[in-house]
Amino acid sequence: MSSQSFNVDVCLFDLDGTLVNTIKASEAVWTDLCNEHGVNPQELFKHSHGVKTSEVLAEWFPMLDNTDDKAVKYLEESMGRDHLSSVFAVPGAIDLLKQLDIDTDTGKKFKDKKWAIVTSGSTYIAFGWFKSILSELEKPEVFVTAFDVKNGKPDPEGYSKARDELCKTWNFDVKTAKSVVFEDAPVGIQAGKAMGAITVGITSTYDKKVLFDAGADYVVRDLSQITIKKNTLTGGITLEVKDGSTNNGVTVEAKDKQC
């Protein structure tokens, strides 16, 4: 099996659609709201994935009172409460995050994590996944939600904030530190590219052409196609992409293989 590798210092992950597949749950909640207020859900879905819930509400449902984020809270809690049976971890996500916590030279667990989460969701839903779907994992110290940024994706504010915090933890030079962003949405890919990161798209929500058009460097079906080849206390992280596609048109395995 052929593959391609790249080196980074820190790894940044979107959450919904990247680590946790919430597509059915999210669309069910939004469809109910659309039907209630006469909004075409298919039109909304063209623009809503990867965008802050508060921004979607403001643009598509200005009639709703979102004072103190109460509408955000209702929608996101409904996703985890009423539609949990349709939510599952993206294949390979849990194993990859566990690998990132281990020094490949010593086999010992790092004191601090080299990875962070940057989500357009709020704490209402984001933190909850680590009590249910991702309960095997420790919630990362660096966890940027919609409440932590002024500007949502595709603005790079969230990813830049997470990178800077990880660099401070590990004493990396933020000007030279290399990052990779894992995303399922075009706005997230654009945010990653805007802050200078390598970007890996996951086709849980959009097909690979849409992700490549947004600027993805690699596109994979899921995170089982990403493995850690090296990850040490004093060195960087070497990641390997198997059976994926690159933005130069090269398919890592067979040309007719679809992500």
From TrEMBL:
Tree of life domain: Eukaryota
Molecular function per GO: 2-deoxyglucose-6-phosphatase activity
Name assigned to this protein: 2-deoxyglucose-6-phosphate phosphatase
Organism: Naumovozyma castellii (Yeast)
